[in-house]
Amino acid sequence: MSDDLTFFLLLAAASILAGIAYALTMWLLRAIADDRRDDGPADWHPMLVHDGDLRESKEVF
């Protein structure tokens, strides 16, 4: 009887921890996706200076 109770308590604790890990993983992936979406054009590079038109970009040294 005691072994069954221990098993179910451990199962419940593992389930709760798995849910927390899942929620944190989804939060982190969503934060990364939101950060990448706000960066601008896909070919933007920190070494380029432009006024919204990448054809007029010039390199900065």
Description:
The chain is mainly alpha-helical and 61 residues long. It has one domain (2-59). 59% of the residues lie in helices and 7% in strands. It has one helix and two strands; from the N terminus they run αββ. A two-stranded antiparallel sheet has the order 1-2. It starts with a helix and ends with a strand. The model has no long low-confidence stretch (mean pLDDT 76).
Mean pLDDT equals 76
Largest sheet: 2 strands, antiparallel
Task: Tell me the fraction of residues in β-strands, as a range.
Answer: 5-15%
Rg of Cα set: 24 Å
How large is the count of helical segments? 1
N-to-C SSE string, H for helix and E for strand: HEE
Q: Specify the overall morphology.
A: rod-shaped
Name the poorly predicted regions: none
Write the layout of secondary structure elements.
Elements: H1 2-37, E1 48-49, E2 58-59
Antiparallel strand pairs: 1-2
Please supply descriptive tags for the structure shown above.
two-stranded antiparallel sheet; mainly alpha; 7% strand; rod-shaped; 61 residues; 1 helix
Concise overview:
This protein has one helix at residues 2-37; strands at residues 48-49, 58-59. It is mainly alpha-helical. Strand 1 and strand 2 form a beta hairpin.
